Amino acid sequence: MNFQFSEEQELLRSQARKFLEKECSSQVVREVLESDQPFDRDLWSAVAELGWTGVAIPEEFGGLGVGYLELCVIAEELGRALAPVPFSSSIYLAAEALLLGGSSTQKQRWLPKIASGETTGAFAIAEGAGAPAWNRMNTKAETCGDGQFRINGVKTPVLDGLKADIAIVVALENQVPGLYLVDLNQENVTRTLEPSIDESRPHARITFSDALGERLGKPGVATIRQLLDRAAILVAFEQLGGADACLQMAVSYAKERFAFGRAIGSFQAIKHKLADMYAELELARSNCFFGAWALSTDDPELSEAAAVARLSISRAYTNCAKESIQVHGGIGFTWELDAHLYYRRSKLLNVALGSPARWQEYLIQSLEQKEEVAGNHARVA
Q1: Does residue 148 sit in the same domain as residue 109?
Q2: Which among 149, 358, 325, 355 is positioned nearest to 247, based on CA atoms?
Q3: In total, how many domains does the chain have?
Q4: What is the sign, positive or negative, of the torsion defined by CA atoms of 47, 49, 53, 56?
Q5: Cα angle at 296 between 362 and 12, to 5 degrees?
Q6: pTM of the model
Q7: CB count, 10 Å around CB of 322?
Q8: Counting beta carbons within 10 angstroms of the beta carbon of residue 295, is it exposed (0 to 12), middle (13 to 18) or buried (19 or more)?
Q9: Domain that holds residue 32
Q10: What is residue 264's DSSP assignment?
Q11: Label partner for 30 (CA 20 to 30 A): which of 37, 151, 220, 313?
Q12: How far apart are CA 343 and CA 325, in angstroms?
């Protein structure tokens, strides 16, 4: 089994990295961070023109239909560049929700707009502090005929929700959770900015007051979990790119910074930090690669692979971002150095789809289900 990317995929990586190095410098990230704009619209338009927004969307719905491995490659480079665009919310979540549960009409209406970059999306599941729980969810969906539903409730924080065109909302219909597509530009939706550790990817508080929405597929936890599993692997690749950038920054500085007549990278304490960062990152990389394979083949172990990838890369990104600051010493804590940009993003992505503790629960559930199935097969035999 080969878990390496092909020559064509590596060429895509090289082209994506060159493009982002030119068009998405840290100055671009800082301009969004320090302004009131929700994302860099010029960069978003350029990304859409390159076809990245339609890489995994089938050709019949306006995409390129290339595949998920290519999308993983792009995700890694976007994470490396800290791209201030709503790519993950629009592509990993909104588009995937439509592909998983949307009707043919819904797909024909929305997917071409997402693939072209005309429409941006958000995923609204959280309702304040704490992990979302179905028995405590207050957002409701009530049918009003003709396939329409009235959505009532408050979702916060919603990543990229401040200026998104549509939202995939998790709401209860007769106490059963489901996915509902809501046009956020209607009068019955209000949005306000929520504080965030990384304002280059702002959060919103969205209030739905009899907002009209459409259900995507049948209600049930299984579809929501499947969506989260698929998105988790793609977000993991964004984290992978960011963590690798932190390591490279630290190594470069350790070679250039001299103290007592020697490069600080020659000192044992710095060597150990860099070695630990590298070892943890490579372990996480292997888990992300396994997740990419499971996603691209729709393997039955997708849930387990997604949880393992999320757990390992979340820890690796946080540690690499933190240790990169430490290797840089006093200057590492300053606003002028880019290290804090990666630290901010690492914290944001760690909880973007649920905390590591939540993914640990998912992993345990997946392993228990596997053990139960194996036990049933053994009894039958």
Answers
A1: no
A2: 325
A3: 3
A4: negative
A5: 120
A6: 0.94
A7: 16
A8: buried
A9: 7-119
A10: G
A11: 313
A12: 9
